[in-house]
Amino acid sequence: NSDGEWLVLPDIIKYDIDKYKSIVSINQNALFFLTNDKASRYRIIKIDLSADKPDLSEHAWQTIIPEFEDRVIEDFLIVNDKLFVLTLKDVINHLDVYDLNGNWLKSIEMPDKGTIFSMNSAPESNSLCIGFTSYKIDKIIYKIDTQSLNSTTWLSITDQIHPEDIIVEQVFAT
Question: Structure pTM?
Answer without folding.
Answer: 0.80
